[in-house]
Amino acid sequence: MEGVLYSGLPREAAKELCLQPQGSEEARAFVSAFLKRSMPKKKDEAIQDVLTRKAVVLEHHCRRRKKPKRRKTKTFTAKQRRELGLFDIEPEQQRYELFLPLHELWKQYIRDLCYGLKPDAQPQMVQSKLLKADLHGAVVTVTKSKCPSYVGITGIILQEFKHVFKIITKDNKLKVVPKINNVFSVETDGFISYIYGSKFQLRASERSAKKFKLKGTIDL
Question: Global pTM?
Fold first, then answer.
């Protein structure tokens, strides 16, 4: 039985499979080339030494793909943004009527945020939502101020920074009003909320995680 299992292939079958006879020069050349490819770091003498002493375990070395380095996106610094005038509003664009659609969008945004602003809505809930809402497009009025010239300024908020509001008034004047020492009122569908600017010196993106006291203070 063993003679049948381990007998050599017939010549016809060997020719069809393109097999070289054992001990031929072609077979030796193939084995030598195969071993050099499989063990590129070893010299010919080392390969022959391994063949005469022990069995050769051929391993497949996978080439590790280098992960492409992520390029960090370069952003402008605050100084560069100021120098480039990215926050500047051109004089021809400083017109109140241009921003009325923005105000309408803001009102709809607040209605959705406050679940419709129904007449039975609790004022505290509306106040808490407004304090964390985006105020770009809101109509605000300066009701109290340590500087009398700011009192009565009313307009649409075009830009909110950490310390100031940029407001466009109905007479097409762009006002830069500091938050500190000023109290602002915001009216939405009959609900009036007050913002104490001294307690409100945050960027718009930072207010969503800020906890505000709903009870206002009388100090400016």
Answer: 0.60
Q: How far is CA 149 from CA 131, 152, 177, in A?
A: 25, 8, 10
Q: How is 204-220 classified by DSSP, letter by letter?
A: TTTGGG----SS--S--
Q: How many Å apart are CA 166 and CA 175, to the nearest integer?
A: 6
What are 12-41's pLDDT values in tens digits? Answer: 766 776 666 665 677 667 767 777 777 777
22: closest CA among 12, 37, 8? Answer: 8
Q: How far apart are CA 208 and CA 130, in angstroms?
A: 10
Distance, CA of 218 to chain centre: 40
Mean pLDDT score of the chain: 79
Beta strands in 57-204 (DSSP E): 139-145, 154-160, 164-169, 174-178, 182-188, 191-196
Residue 176 has which token pair?
A: 């830069």
CA 217 to chain centre: 37
CA distances from 180 to 67, 142, 169 (A): 50, 12, 20
How many other C-beta atoms lie within 10 A of the C-beta of residue 20?
14
Residues 135, 138, 141, 143: is their CA dihedral positive or negative? negative
Q: At what angle do helices 25-38 and 44-53 cross, to 10 degrees?
A: 110
SS3 108: helix
